[in-house]
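All the exercises in this workshop are built on plain-text protein records. A record pairs a protein's sequence with a compact description of its fold. Backbone structure tokens are a discrete shorthand for how the chain folds in space. Once this layout is familiar, the rest of the handout is easier to follow. As an example, a complete record with its sequence and its structure tokens follows.
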Amino acid sequence: MAEDLDLQSWDLQCESNHRNHRTSEMGCQQLVVRRGQPFSITLHFVGRSYEEGLDKLSFNVETGPCPNEVSGTKTHFPVSSSLEEAAWSSAVESQDGANLTVSICSPPDARIGRYTFTLEASTGYQGSSFRLGEFVLLFNPWCPVDSVFLESEEERNEYVLTQHGHIFQGSSTFIYSIPWNFGQFEDEILDISLQLLDTNPKFFQNQDRDCSRRNSPVYISRVVSAMVNCNDDQGILFGRWKQPYDDGVSPMVWSGSVDILQRWQKYGCQPVRYGQCWVFAAVACTVLRCLGIPTRVITNYNSAHDTNSNLKIEQYLDENGKVQAGTREYIWNFHCWVESWMTRPDLSEGFDGWQVLDPTPQEKSEGVYCCGPTPVKAIKEGELKLKYDVPFVFAEVNADVVYWMLQSDSSRKKTVDSRSVGRNISTKSVGRDSREDVTHNYKYQEGSEEEKAVLEKANLSKAPPTEEEEEGLKIKIKASEGMNNGCDFDVFAVISNKTANERTCRLMFGARAAGYNGALGPECGRKDLLNVALEPYAEKSVPLRKYGGCLMQDNMIKVMALLQDYETKEIVIGVRNIYVKNPDIRIRVLGEPVQNRKLVAELTLTNPLPGPLSGCVFTMEGAGLTRGQKVQELDSPVGPGEEAKVRVDFVPQQSGLRKMVVDFESDKLTGVKGYRNVIIAPLSK
């Protein structure tokens, strides 16, 4: 009788498997592979070599706390002559004496997560079992039959592998971006992302069912959408949209997801304070990219928050044209969510592709604060009955804004704005730092027959302007150039009379500091002109001087002008959100940028304000560059026009294109962002 096969050692070939599975930047501490794609291991036997026909080898893989074959979380499969595409399988790849290399492949719909890995070897009636350790299985956008398959290699690199990006903010008339360090391959992020799945309430309710559903990106993405906020669970971020932030970190300070996720894990899954929409979206993007789901951050300008699903945002104005407090419905200057790429086998054909996921806690979905996945195609086509949450996202990009203005007789005059919501929907371009406009993915061209059909389907009528409306009173708000923090500037109400008759009107023209979510702060300029005479076909420009000193944390000013005709009672409204620009951070890299070689970053900011800046702090980070955050404080205040300057040492760990992301904070100037692309040369061997 042949002696038993005895396994002495084994090699999971982390380096080569990671290279083939595009997981190299996750490090070699554990094997990380993508489903539907073979990976190799080498077995070293002692005593004698493996003999085909005499020896039988098989593997067990298990995931979750209660693995079983019915749920797809436990599988036993033998070493056979060839690999199968639709099931767990293994085959001999090569043999060199006592060393046997085996190729193993998971099915393209396998459950993702951490697996234990066991070899069973038998000769005749006797056998032995050897625990080979663990590996992590991820979604695979490179596998044509995986439900997250993305055809373009450039897009796969951008939406799965790229660890940095830009998130667009500002206003629809002044779009700018902040850099963000997603860092999905940084230390601990994979483990934290898997821990996030094991912390979700559905896992505690039924562990077997939860783990069995982890083959579906629809399910996983919905869980992540719920778990990035902490409203119903032990989620990652606590949302707050106004000061103070003294018991946490201001949302404006964050420049990356890594520190947030590491804090959440370090402090026992207690929510990290604080987040706002772009922070929620960016953290979700990090987790989803880490798990292998192609994901990008989206910004929608003039985004409607519709609380009662009537596709209308109602704003109430007093007799002086001021917005009255108390409404829960707002027009956000901008709002961020993410899109993830996946098939939708749970829906009828035609709704695969980009899906909206919104982890910002706004409204509940099936009793939980989450949103999506919502097919972008369903929003464009007005298919409001499809899951998940199509009516809410549809309203964000299509709702009417209804203004009700109080009249002298206590009645209210109604004015409807059907065109301002859902503008300049933006994301980072593939492979570049520039903006890509994706509004056409969400909406047909304004005024087109396709748009009319969709709005009719959604019971939302946006009639084109009548000839009378085209001929009436008009108002537009314009702003001067150079709206920089610390400087005076002008805004103008440009009013026109497009009729053959002279019109006498009242002009109410004001500016208020505002949050990006539409919440209004103190007034910072106002005019009320009671008798404005407009000649036939004439135009007037009325200035309003504004100083940036009354800004709130988001550097936003909401300017509103109302023109009311005394005779006809006609009211026209003009609204513009103005972003006041912060100064630039200048970044110089000193030294030759080579992997594992010390470099110095010189960071400089000039104080634009009329008073000194105290408590000045620069924070720098970058995936593959800094191993966490580098924080440098200034010892003394920085006077008006003076430079805040520091030098920061760092040693890049990874080669290739990297993004250095910098944040500046002080007592009077906060949330200032800067970045620099750095190409790191590989360490020569």
Summary: The two ends are 51 Å apart (CA to CA). The chain has a mean pLDDT of 93. The chain is about 15% helix and 40% strand. The first strand starts at residue 6 and ends at 11.
